[in-house]
Amino acid sequence: MQFFIKTVKPFLGFCILALAATSLLNGCQSSNPQSYQPINIDGSSTVYPITKTAADRFNETQSVPVEVTVGFSGTGGGFRKFCAGETEVNNASRPISLSEMEACKQAKVSYIELPIAFDAITVVINPQNNWLQNITIDELRKIWQPEAQQKITRWNQIRSSWPNAPLKLYGPGTDSGTYDYFTEAVTGSAGSSRSDYIASEDDRLLEQQVSSDVNSLGYFGLAYYEQNKDELKALSVDSGQGPVFPSRETVEKSEYQPLARPLFIYINLTAAQNNPAMREFVYYFLEQAPGIAEEVGYVPLPEEAYHINEVTYNQGEVGTVFEGQSQFGLSISELMRKQAKY
Asked: Could you tell me which residue ranges the PBP domain spans (predicted)?
């Protein structure tokens, strides 16, 4: 199966060849601010801090402010809007799925996939918990698998040396890419999880819940832990090679597995071709992404990766190199090799 379609020549100034069996697109508009159109962005709450910062700073560079709306409804919720043509950019904490690819195809929405950072899904507890420092993937599976629902409700049921205390769970909702990735990495199947936990698409709410509940355990992106280190305690995760703490260093060394993953933005090709503000915003985003990613608490990609993104974007190369599924154990260098296949 062919999972992406490659253009045969670049579109200078974003004047491009038609892609994915569409007819030749209209010529590019000028970059006159009067022709700028609003930019609607939705999707992953994990990617939200990067995109929101980029959008705010982009407007600081404009003589005429651009209406850039950045929301979050989860990766899946965002893709439903994106593939329906309701948004121009989708933030995603996992690659586009097969069903989402089909939805975009049916709606004739061509998209450019741009990885912008690496993340470490971080398992967190309340800082008053002074008896727990690390947890194994097998123990996480025991906690989160569907069979645990209404059965694994106390800490000592997971490890007998842990206290006989209530286990309170917090995590992303089912529209979240973090939920999809975590459940597939831990339980073996995307979306295969117990449902008797407090769920939210807003990572800030999850952070607040865990920081106020001494018996809590939750998970979300590294940035929300980095921004709230005084209120949270991160656990080292043991996947069989010993406990590894989530950090930039362990992600870059490919040691924090299987919970390290790339983060993406998906760009509506037609919107980029028709809206000068959109074209300029994405170029600005790619230029600023390394610094912003590090600033908000994620792991920036090597400079070469962003250059590959610029080429991919400039040439209007649409589709995905992930074949509709997450890939575990992926390193930054392997991600770059996938990018270079375009």
From this structure: 32-286
- Over the stretch 112-121, which tens digit does the pLDDT of each residue have? 999 999 999 9
d(CA 175, CA 90): 13
Last residue of a domain, one of 224, 253, 282: 253
Q: pLDDT averaged over the chain?
A: 89
**Largest Cα–Cα distance in the chain?**
68
Q: Are residues 136 and 215 in the same domain?
A: yes
Q: Quick one: how many helices (H) and strands (E) in the chain? A: 12, 15
Determine how β-strand 134-136 pairs with β-strand 236-238: parallel
Q: Are 124 and 217 contained in the same domain?
A: yes
Burial 200-235 (b: 16+ CB within 10 A, else e): bbbbbebbebbbebebbbbbbbbbbbbbbeeebbbb
Contact status, residue 124 vs residue 134, Cβ threshold 8 Å: no
Q: Which run of H or of E encompasses 234?
A: strand 233-234
Q: Can you give the residue range of the structural domain that contains 195?
A: 120-253
Cα separation, 248 vs 135, in Å, equals: 19
What token pair was written down for 201?
A: 């698409």
Say yes or no: 145 and 112 in one domain. Answer: no
46 and 164, same domain (yes or no): no
Same-domain status, 126 and 111: no
Q: Is 22 within a domain?
A: no
pLDDT tens per residue, range 182-226: 999 999 988 899 999 999 989 989 999 999 999 999 999 999 999
Cα–Cα distance, 10 to 130 (Å, whole number)? 57
H or E element, residue 5: strand 4-5
